[in-house]
Write a structure and sequence with these properties.
Strand order of the largest sheet: 5-9-8-7-6
Strand content: 15-25%
Oligomer: single chain
Largest sheet: 5 strands, antiparallel
Low-confidence stretches: none
Structural class: alpha+beta
Mean pLDDT: 88
Shape: globular
Number of helices: 7
Helix content: 25-40%
């Protein structure tokens, strides 16, 4: 397993509470060493005790992400930011695009991207933002929301969305509904009417709204908590499937990180 993994296991609570999104503390420790999870996703982990051997992401993963990012930056050189901005719901000034993203705003040039509040942007976030600009979606959104499975060639992506976004959010909301619900105000969001315990539309990007529905579980009835994330029918005009899934994953991650900060 390696020294770092064993050291992480020692400082985890070993309660298998599931708040991190994994089924057990061991699973979280393994995900942490491979870069699939961040230390702050465990609300019980004392970050001061985290072994120095643990890096947020393995060098190989980071290298790959940065290579992809550099390739995407080459493609964005051909995009006229000023002309693309209105159709993407962005503002343009002095060669820069200002992009509302999740709970913050990003300033993006053809060379770099940064959150205006100073929070670090993961290279995957940057890849997503540059992809959004490169797609230059021009067809208006329909206002009709569908499951990811509606889009062609989405079978494998549906499973990823289910595991890393919907199931993770369902567990968290079922356990901490009263704490998590108010945090939607940090995002560009509006609550919807409906039969779900929570129905909300959140703008990850100006033309990428996600609708999140949550139903509480009922152990007496044998019902598990359920979350479903829907996309506008024309979402693929603005991003590829992988990026759309990442939008949902990142939304859930930010939502839960906000809970830990409050």
């Amino acid at each position: 397993m390696g020294f770092a993994l064993l050291e992480i296991i020692k400082i985890l609570p070993k309660t298998n509470c599931g708040k991190c999104g994994e089924v057990s503390c061991l699973a979280f420790a393994m995900a942490l060493t491979t870069g699939k999870r961040l230390p702050e996703e465990c609300p019980h982990l004392d970050l001061a005790k985290l072994p120095t051997e643990v890096a947020p992401k393995p060098a190989s993963e980071l290298d790959q992400a940065y290579r992809i990012l550099e390739e995407i930056k080459k493609k964005v050189q051909n995009v006229n930011f000023e002309k693309a901005a209105p159709g993407l719901g962005l503002s343009y000034k002095y060669g820069r695009l200002h992009i509302p993203y999740l709970d913050g705003e990003v300033e993006l040039t053809k060379k770099n991207a940064r959150r205006l509040d100073g929070l670090e942007l993961d290279p995957r976030d940057q890849i997503l933002l540059y992809n959004y600009v490169i797609f230059q979606g021009y067809k208006p959104l329909t206002g009709e929301f569908v499951g990811l499975e509606t889009f062609p060639n989405s079978i494998s992506k549906v499973a990823t969305l289910r595991r890393y976004a919907e199931e993770k959010l369902a567990r968290a909301l079922n356990e901490d509904f009263e704490d998590l619900r108010p945090l939607i105000s940090h995002f560009r969001s509006r609550e919807l009417s409906g039969e779900a315990d929570l129905a909300v539309e959140i703008l990850v990007l100006p033309r990428v709204p996600l609708r999140v529905y949550f139903w509480r579980g009922d152990p007496e009835e044998g019902l598990s908590p359920e979350a479903k994330i829907l996309y506008d029918l024309r979402a693929t005009e603005y991003l590829d499937l992988e990026s759309l899934v990442f939008c949902a994953e990142r939304l859930v991650e930010r939502w839960l990180v906000l809970e830990n900060k409050n």
